[in-house]
Design goal:
By secondary structure, the chain is of the alpha/beta class. It contains 24 helices and 38 strands. It folds into eight domains: 1-65 and 966-991, no CATH class; 83-219, P-loop containing nucleotide triphosphate hydrolases (Rossmann fold, 3-Layer(aba) Sandwich), CATH 3.40.50.300; 225-287; 304-375, Arc Repressor Mutant, subunit A (Orthogonal Bundle); 376-473, no CATH class; 481-620, Alpha-Beta Horseshoe (Leucine-rich repeat, LRR (right-handed beta-alpha superhelix)), CATH 3.80.10.10; 622-730; 762-960, no CATH class. Strand 18, helix 21 and strand 19 (607-608) form a beta-alpha-beta unit.
Amino acid sequence: MQVMVPVFYDVDPLTRVYGWANRWLEAGYITMHQSRISSSKILTDSELVEDVIKDVYEKLHRTERVGIYSKVLEIENLLYKQPWDVRSIGIWGMPGIGKTTLAKAVFNHMSSDYDVSCFIENFDEAFHKEGLHRLLEKKIGKLLKEVFDIKGSYIMRPSLQRDKLCNKRILVVLDDVRDSLAGESFLRRLDWLGPGSLIIMTSTNKKVFAYCDIYQVYEVHGLNEHEALQLFFQNAFEKDVPEQIDREISRNVIEYANGNPLALRIYGQELKGKMSEMEDAFLKLKQHPPQKIQDVVKSVYSQLGDNEKNILLDIACLFRGENINYVIQMLEGCRYFPRIGITILVEKWLVTISENTVQMTNLIQDICREILNGETESCTRMWEPRRIRYLLEDDDLKAGAESSATPKYGLVSEDIESIFLDTSNLIYDVKREAFKNMFNLRFLKIYNSCSKYGHGLNFPNGLDSLPCGLRLLHWENYPLKSLPQDFELDNLVELCMPYSKLQTLGAGTKFLEMLKRIRLCHSKELVEFDVLLVARNIELIDLQGCTRLQSFPDTSELQHLRVINLSGCTEIKSFQGAPQNIEELHLQGTSIREIPISTVSHSPQKVKLDRKKLLNLLENFEDVEHIDLESVTDLTKVSSCNQGFGKLVHLNMKDCSHIRSLPDMANVLESLQVLHLSGCSELKEIKGFPRNMRKLYIGGTAIREVPQLPNSLEFLNAHGCTHLKSICLNFEQLPRHYTFSNCFNFSSQLISEFLEKCLTRVASIAREHQQELTREPEVSICIPSDARQRFAFLLQPGPDVMIDSPWTRKPLSGLAISVVVSFQDDCQNVAGLGIRCICTWQTRNGYLGRMERLFQCWAPLEAPKVQRDHVFFFYETDMHTNGSEENPNLWVKFEFHAVSWENKLLGDKCMVIQCGVRVITAPGNDTNTIPSEITIGSEATSVVDGDHPPTSSRIVLEANSPTPLPSKERRKVSRAQSTLRSNLWKWMRTI
């Protein structure tokens, strides 16, 4: 089938040309490509060319090439950035992700640029089958004979290889390299490759690349949702968008495959022609993944050591989604080496670490479970309720007919290592000796994912025993009053039995050296808890809601203990002590009236107690350094600070929503450095601040006027203070990091004066620091933009400015930078907002320079909802060009972009709309070699030189004056536009 793709360039959709094109389109004769006309983003010619090329490429290479083109370009860009020598790149990704397909696409795309090209598919298989020398002769020798028309086997001698090929550009692709020694041996014999040659290697094992001296690795990600649907539809329905399809089931398939092209292709083929029973067919495939997919994953699994295999299977059955540190502790308790093992699994793409949790795709998990079911006759890890029921259920208590209908699985209790049972919708009686012969059981987790149904296991005859080798005992709604008498907890790492009927833990708690966590929350029958005397390595104790527990032992000697939760233990009246390094202490809802001073003084911000009790306790503690009163909703007034808090350093009163005023703290609280008042929505007045305060948070308060701020203040966050009208600054010290975002009650005059004073003070400080030979402080200020404000910066429209730049005889101290950022109403994901500044320049001798700088506006986890336009002011001292008196800069360009904390562009909803740069110079003599000085978007009257008028060497641009490109740059742009237009035909010829 031939495909015709008309490309309309500079054609109005209303013209007659579109009329006949649409009729052809409706008749099915052509496939027309239209640029994204309806998009709010206007594409450049180069972007349109790329758009057309991608469209044509994917039409010509349908099912096997969906989503490939953009990846080919990314790899090409990475290679172009490497120096002109023997270049190399690794392609790394999970099994089935498309590494081979991508490598072939890159090979086909680039091979015409090389004198000799060689693609070795299934490298490991070929290497071990042929051997090193035979493989070299078969692949490289064959190419030599073809290129030079040389006969005979002597061509493979290393000296002849080197002589014949050292001046040739060679492309070598090694696909699916698993054995790092084999890959390294092969490449070592190609050490004669000349400059411009390229080595590409694919592997699921990231370590292979480092072993083979390939240090740039391209990570292949899965297809996005649109690409995944397209590939699935093409294989299941032979159409990009089928007319009749259950989209919910299709999206379930897409989600399950997680963007894996091999899985999408195979599932599409397996479900082809099964429209009516697609849902049932998909469920069957999930239970037993197709053999082709299993083979790919098993090929990687077979290369793992026993340590990694066991860890992988435990994660698949038990620990998927769990905290990485928790998983490591549990596996270390089994004498495994999880730190090494998990790293290897990550490098082989079998598991991932995301947000500090261990993750695994649904597909990999199901294949791992299929491996367990198929490896041995008796399963070592159990998760299927029907199989577990066969092991645990008491046959004597069932009706004869029901008992005879129970399936027989041939399970052997001695082989079982873990049980993971969801008791939702289960009700049956468990035999007394159910766990008697499970000598190898390491993990036992019995839980209920639908808590409203309660537990479904009954023990009419009690429980005879539990295995002594258990590392994890997680049993929700445990129905008995105690653990089995003979149960020893010597190997236990975690005991988790919430909502249990336990009254005591029993006599088996003599040796608990390995125990890290105890969770018995809401065990309302628990009356005794004395296991801590022998649990020396305990890290967490959670007894929340144990309403009959009357005492809690002294834990001050347990140096590993970090968290204690006794909240809701209404009968506990005393607390004897906690270790000094405790991180969380929850005592809400208890009857405790006294706390040892050592507990509060070392980490009071972690003490959670009824608020009034906490305030009463703190009154007598003179050595307290940190106080956390966050969300004290019943706190309405703070009395005058007299004495008793002389060592207080950090006071957190965030979200104390009913407090209305604070007393004068100017002459007291001399040690206070951090005051957190954000979210105190009723706070209208602060009479004075401590003289040594460094950080102040007042965002979201109702403050109208900020009193005199201390000279020591470095950080001020007043985001969302919509009532704030004035702020008192003496500018003796330079403001460092001040945020007034969404403070819309500021007048334009106040904003102008504030920015002018900042600019003046920056210049003054620059001279002082220049004379003292010390580093100038960083400055970052955010304040609402007002069109009426008048400021020394006459800001240029757009995100960049460029000027011709002469040199001057005055040394450059730094740059004062001002940008205006527009925030749209639906702007999202501005956590850790920053401004990326790109500075480029050219000197008289033709040198082109470039540098980047990221100005952080707020912290990475901070994402305030910002509205309208805001001015950001920065002072930068490191962006010096290398122009000199002998070789001055011809032009300098600054470009600004709003980015996230990951340095990613935020798009049209948060963008720079104006910018300006002001040079700050310091006094100097005329004999210095001085970098070029520029002043962008500023008036002729300058604050940088005090009362002296500007020198003739300074160029001042008016705000509305266009900035022409240098003639050389204009010629470059013209040539680039011509090249872009011709690229379409060049690409279409090579596709």
